[in-house]
Specification:
Largest sheet: none
Order of helices and strands: HHHHH
Shape: extended
Number of strands: 0
Distance between the termini: 82 Å
């Protein structure tokens, strides 16, 4: 008797991604009046007149403004700008040693610069 080919299992990620991708395509169509081309980003900058990747820098600037308004210590803001992370003592301990070292180096750099 011949074996039947095994059914391919659909991963939960693929199942979850389907509706998200459909939503992004619908948003693209609404914004640009057409389907995205293969070389265009599906996750696009909603403020742009043409399809382009989301620019993270304005987002980072908004985060830094919010951090300043929340009166977060400038030393931590500096480390955030250098590493892209805002960490508590608890989350720092969970990072790989190299990432912890990067965080501590950014704090030390701030300290050196602030003494000048």
């Amino acid at each position: 008797m011949a074996k039947r080919p095994a059914k391919k299992k659909s991963s939960s990620l693929a199942k979850a991604a389907g509706p998200l991708l459909k939503k992004q395509i619908a948003l693209f169509r609404k914004k640009f009046g057409r389907d995205p081309r293969p070389d265009e980003p599906l996750f696009f900058d909603p403020d742009a007149d043409v399809p382009r990747h989301i620019q993270l820098e304005p987002t980072e600037a908004a985060i830094v403004r919010a951090m300043n308004e929340a009166k977060i210590h400038p030393r931590l803001i500096y480390a955030f700008e250098k590493t892209g992370r805002l960490l508590s003592a608890a989350t720092l301990k969970k990072l790989p040693k190299a990432d912890q070292a990067e965080w501590h180096a950014a704090l030390a750099e701030y300290d050196r610069k602030s003494r000048q």
